[in-house]
Amino acid sequence: MISMSGKAIRKWWWLFALPTFAAFIVGFLVPFIMGVYLSFRKFTTVTDGKFVGFRNYYRALKDPHLVYSFLFTTLFAVITTIIINVIAFAIAYMLTKKFKGTTIFRAVFFMPNLIGGIVLSYIWQLLLNGILGYFNRTITFSEVFGFWGLVIVVCWQQIGYMMIIYIAGMQALPGDVMEAAAVDGASPRQTLFKITIPLMMPSITVCTFLTITNGFKLFDQNFALTNGGPSRKTEMLALNIYRTFTTPRCEGVGQAQAVMFFIVVAVIAMVQNMLTRSKEVAA
């Protein structure tokens, strides 16, 4: 039987959903529609736009920095996705074993995620420049230093968060299946690759989605750690769009870049979800 509270929720569900729906409309849908609209106009404010058709998109695609930023961001997203998920899964696998101090270790690994990207990057800038200073180098000495500096900072910050998701997934694994594998004589390696990982695909799907999209959307850490240096060689897509938008008479071009950026990230995220979800079905 349905309780009185359950009947009330079913009757007035729209009232509970209204605040979230309103926030979605105001915070996402309206700005997105306005952004698409302004990407076809030359403007300095949202009220003085002049329609220019696809000219902003043409100018955006001609920008050599945009192409380089896209390739740099893609490489960064792929490498960080692999590193974060492999290490986070390994830590989660170890911390689901029964030994003392697991709760403390979980808290320690998760703590970097609580620090804001700007603050975290400035701290790491001091650390990395201090280490590289012994070799008369800085984090912006070359794009190689800048790239791996960004990888270190982002991985250090996000591994703990993905670890929590993997731990939740491992704790939800059916115990009878794991016990049956042990009874049948499966080795720890066989259990991991034949049972644990296939059953963990829903968690892997979520973590892969988050790390890929976070890699492409990265702005705070890029801005604070390298600011695109040297000579815009470590400038990622979000920072490139920001610089274009804040350049006088290029607001429309920057808005066109933002729309294309949204489409690219959305397509990549959907393809990744399709691929990993197909593994869930197979599992």
Number of helices: 13
What's the pLDDT, averaged over the residues?
Answer: 89
Q: How much strand?
A: under 5%
Shape: globular
- Let me know the number of strands: 2
Q: Distance between the terminal alpha carbons, to the nearest Å?
A: 36 Å
Structural class: mainly alpha
Question: Which consecutive residue ranges, at least 5 long each, have pLDDT under 50?
Answer: none
User: Can you give the helix content as a percent range?
Assistant: over 70%
Radius of gyration: 23 Å
Encode the helix/strand succession as letters: HHEEHHHHHHHHHHH
Family: Belongs to the binding-protein-dependent transport system permease family.
Membrane topology: Multi-pass membrane protein
Protein name: ABC transporter permease
Keywords: Cell membrane, Membrane, Transmembrane, Transmembrane helix, Transport
Overview of this protein structure:
With 283 residues, the chain is an all-alpha fold. It contains 13 helices and 2 strands; from the N terminus they run ααββααααααααααα. α3 (55-62) crosses α13 (251-282), α5 (102-110) packs antiparallel against α7 and α10 (201-217) packs antiparallel against α13 (251-282). It is found in: Cell membrane. Its main location: membrane. Residues 70-272 form the ABC transmembrane type-1 domain.
